[in-house]
Amino acid sequence: MIPRAILERKVINHMSKQGLKFEGSNVEEGTLRFVGDGSTYVVKMLDETDGKPELISAALQSAFWAVKGERPYILVPKSMASMDELMAIRLHGIGLLLYGSHEIEELPPIVKHMRGDKKEDGSKVSVEHDSILHMLERIERLERLIHKMNEVDALVSRLERLEVLYGEISNKLLALEGARPLHIKTTVPDMPSKNNNPGSEIELPSFMKDNPWLDILAGKG
Amino acid sequence: MYDEDYKKRYVFGADYGTSEFKYGPITQGERPLAVENRGYFPEKSVLSQIMGVDREVVVGKDVTLFLESGAELATRLVYPMREGIIAKDDAKAWKVVKELTRYALEEFKPKGWGFNGFYVVAALSAVAPRYMYEMFFDMFDSMAKDAGLVHSATIIPQPLAVAIAHKKTSCVVVESGHGNTQFAPISRAPIRGAVIALNRGGSDANAIMAEILKDAGYGDLVAEETLVRKVKESLGLLPADLNSAITFAKNNPDAVRAVYAVPGTRLKIDLAENSWARFLVGEYVFNPNHEIFQSYFRRGMPRPRDTKVGDVVFYGMLDMAEAITTAVEKCPVELQPLLYSQILLSGGNFSWKVPEKLKNVCVDSAMKIKRMMAEKGIENVEVTMASEPQYSVWRGCIVYGYAVPASYSWSWEKMEGWMNFYK
User: Fold this and answer.
1) Mean pLDDT value of segment B295-323
2) Average pLDDT for residues A198-220, to the nearest whole number?
3) What does the pLDDT read at residue B183?
4) DSSP strand E in A13-141: where?
5) B72-81: average pLDDT
6) pLDDT at B383 over 60
7) What is the tens place of the pLDDT at every residue in B137-157?
8) Chain B partners of A159 at a C-beta cutoff of 8 Å?
9) Could you tell me which of A47, A24, A26, A44 has the C-alpha nearest to residue A34?
10) Which domains does chain B have, with CATH numbers?
């Protein structure tokens, strides 16, 4: 078992590296206090001899500190609780400092993001880095899709303008044909090809050539 | 001009024949595509497994996949145009027609921008009642809304389409299909009040062919309608005069004997001593009044009966020459000689072969009609067989759609013009 004094030193070293200043300890409570970033950090220490009841008690006490606006952490031996249990504690805004035979490993509190989620002093709450990256990716994807939709809209507008233009040109051609001298014959209209390609021409089917019904039917209406 | 140009590119002909549905756009060239005019209503689970889709009715070539279940075939396989007319409340038949139409239009729907639906010209029987026109237009409307397949549609009588395809502006078109035969005088437009219809067509020739097969010992095959039709087309003969032909057959049994080998099978159908009956098949189509047919009626073969659909009477036993004269005599007297001089026969029911060794006793359909008309004292008759009659209606549809202006709106009074669905 690691002696409490060594544990305290390890915690103070770790928190100092994070830019926090050691304020003092409370032996009765088993806590260490630090200040920094305009906040007070309280670390509740548990030994390897402590069990689940002590962990629950520490979590409840820490939650109380969190409500008060302090930033609670619990120092726990790595072997004490499962990751699920530790995750549940973190979800209540409590950070964890895990210790074993080597260095202390910090698991920051998981902050639920709510609209207007700000501390009373105006500082922003911490947001998990992975969540931010994920959100950014989604926003970029949306931006790409919107860009593509804009391109399609532009193409549709262009096609509609071309259609109108084609209609106008056709009407002008019709007007010109109206003024055409009788001795100039009309041409056979384009026939679509077998693959419906409107650009190419093929010969009229035999049943249409010299068919007297073409004139009779064209005069309908 | 724009509409006109567009229309000429996307005219689509649809011939709703009693036996086959022929379809295709103007780009198809000389011949349409054809599928049997029928649909199969499979059990949903079977359909899902085989087709991978959830369609209520299967049409086109896929129908063949379902024909193994003989017991239920009659109820599940629906031929919607059996008599050229679909009853208003025959929901299954309408579903088949709609699915066939969708199947045909989607097959040719071009990809990409610029396509606003086909200009569909549908050809129906000359005796199709008005409600069929209304229901077809409703069907095209839904296809325009649901899938953009139809821009505009029009419906024309099949005999008019035949006359157009054969470039005849004044004539009597005799269109004989599977279920009935229509006699339609035409003079630059159908003379609707003069149309005569017979309740007799290729199916009746099939019926007597089936009786002949039973007599020859092939009764187990007569339930297969397609097979009976093929035997009829191969072995059936049209006699110049039935009595003379039967006498010839009795005296020359080997000359009339023929064997039909069913393609792709080991089955050979030999009529043997019943080969003389081959002449009955053709004769029955043209004139079922010979006393020899009475024995078939007595044994249970249904006699073609007069029926009335809407205002139209379908005559059962009228012979073809009588039907032609009845139709022509409903037209102005001045026009009648012109109509007699241009009788146009169309439809698969007129495709009778004349074997070389039987050319003294057999005739083709044109000669048969000419002889029958002469017997009634009508001379100066010219009868023409439509070339490739199975395609005539579709070809007429294409010419009609190509020529009638897009701006000519449908008129219920004249029963012509375009019903526009493109918004």
Assistant:
1) 89
2) 80
3) 93
4) 21-26, 31-36, 39-45, 71-77, 95-99, 105-107
5) 78
6) yes
7) 999 999 999 888 999 999 999
8) 113
9) A24
10) 2-38+79-160+389-420 (3.30.420.40)
Q: What percent of chain B clears pLDDT 90, i.e. is strictly above it?
A: 61
Q: In what order do the strands lie in the sheet with B181-187?
A: B307-309, B312-315, B196-198, B181-187, B170-176, B343-346, B383-385
**Shortest CB distance from B399 goes to which of A191, A193, A213?**
A213
- The sheet carrying B419-420 orders its strands as B33-36, B20-25, B11-16, B118-124, B150-157, B419-420
Q: Which of A48-57, A127-136, B409-418 has the lowest mean pLDDT?
A: A127-136
CA B101 to chain CA centroid, nearest Å: 17
Count, residues in chain A: 221
Q: Which of A205, A210, A216 sits opposite B169 (nearest CB)?
A: A216
Q: Does B167 sit within 8 Å of A210, measured CB to CB?
A: yes
pTM above the 0.80 mark? no
**Across B170-238, where does the E strand assignment appear?**
170-176, 181-187, 196-198
- Give the CATH number of domain A4-112+120-125; options: 3.90.79.10, 3.40.50.720, 3.30.70.100, 3.40.1350.10: 3.40.1350.10
From chain B, the residues in CB contact with A158 under 8 A are none
Domain definitions of chain A by residue range:
4-112+120-125, 127-179
Tell if the CB–CB gap between A207 and B167 is shorter than 8 Å.
Answer: yes
- Which residues in chain B have Cβ-Cβ distances shorter than 8 Å to A166? 2
